[in-house]
Amino acid sequence: MARGEESSVSRPVTVGVDGSEGSVAAADWAADEAALRGDGLRLVYATRWAEHQLGAMKVSHEDRADAAEGVLAETERRVGSRQPGLTMTADEVEDAPVSVLLAAAAEAELLVVGSHGLGSVRGFIVGSVGQEVIAATQRPVVLVRPGYEKNSPQKVVLGLDVNEADDELLNFAFDFAGRHRVPLDIVHTWHDSFVHHAGAAAKDEKAAALAAAVRPFRDRFPATEVTEVSAPGRPAEHLVEAASDARLVIVGRRRAARGAHIGSITHAVIHHASCPVAVVPHA
Predict the structure, then answer these.
(1) pTM for the full model?
(2) Domain shared by 139 and 240, yes or no
(3) Which of 44, 211, 219, 220 is most solvent-facing, going by the fewest CB within 10 Å?
(4) Contact 282, 253 (CB under 8 A)
């Protein structure tokens, strides 16, 4: 497909590429997801790195343009081989990574990025870049680490706070599990301090609240096998452990939380989960 060719799909799956190992994994994941959904795939490359980084690397404008052309062409070849027939566009954007990814996400069904780049200079998810994107975008973002396909896991994990059981978050989880035809484990965990003050009745209330939040979606997605887990402990630790054999772990981010504050649980999961992580903005 010629670069810049228009896709017939209004909201493609979009992936940020930069030539790093993480972005290669992200492109693979995004290609498979786009093919499964019947959506187009958009590749985006940001050519404008931070000025102090460019100065330190002594990278010319011509070299940056050549690098972008090479990375996009190689990614197109890889994706075309992996998913023949997939509708695909590729764009080199003259701007900083955060701006490029935010603009791309606004037009995407979901944005996919590698969970790390090359060293401390290159890569979409380096330092504050990834957190800035996650904290500001209104669309779901999936973070993909290299080696995510090793165990071919067959379940999806959703971390759910029953006090913030937003429909957008639950719908994303049920829809994803349904598309992939895999079970969905929904994990609600409360902090250890609750254990010392709560009896069996209070714990039953937690489980009942989880069941009530999930019930409408069980009815809407009857073919999806669902397991509800309501247990005391540290939420981030439970989710990271549950994600060890998951295809995807899903966490939420409140849209009202701006800046670098994406929530301690979400922050822990995106840094420590071994499988791909979806961060879904919700009200």
Answers:
(1) 0.86
(2) no
(3) 219
(4) yes
